[in-house]
Amino acid sequence: MSPVVVLVGAPGSGKSTVGRLVADRLGVAFRDSDEDVEAAAGQKISDIFVEHGEAHFRALEKTAVKEALATHEGVLALGGGAILDADTRVLLKEHRVAFLEVTLTDAASRVGLNRERPLLLGNVRGTLLKLMDERRPFYEEVAVLTVRTDREPEQVAAEIVESLEP
Fold it and tell me: Which pTM was predicted?
């Protein structure tokens, strides 16, 4: 068992939106590792960060991603920081991974002042830029496909679906 495609990218890159579109086009299920973490913890990610810290969240995330990679056969979207874990990057090398590349302007406008994204509280653009710069090499390391997201989500989804055809 293995996901058809795994989506990675910065917050605001459209992983959930595009992932659902790709799953619909392929007739498979969509899964988001952030939702898995929330279900396992019984609380929202923002609450996990506040009550237990980022390290605890990352441990839950690592477990959720490992389980999803082993059991999910549809489209899987990973949280933006999931690729920070070296073991997760090793696991991802065995899967078809698409990096959704987003501009700072697009990411900032999509994320806005979303309180559900604890790492982005405060200076959203500055924090996003820092996260994007730090994580880009990891996204590129695991990706077999890089897709620009500076267009309609349907166009991004179509490019991913087309890349999956033999």
Answer: 0.90
Alpha helices in 53-114 (DSSP H): 54-71, 86-92, 104-111
75-129 residue pLDDT tens? 999 998 999 999 999 999 999 999 999 987 787 776 664 445 444 555 667 778 8
3-state secondary structure 18-30: HHHHHHHHHCCCE
Domain 5-164: give its CATH superfamily. P-loop containing nucleotide triphosphate hydrolases (3.40.50.300)
Task: Please write the tens of the pLDDT for every residue from 42-66.
Answer: 999 888 988 998 899 999 999 999 9
Residues 67-99 as b/e (b if ≥16 CB within 10 A, e otherwise) read: ebbeebebbbbbbbbbbbbeebbebbeeebbbb
Beta-bridged to residue 5, according to DSSP, are: 75
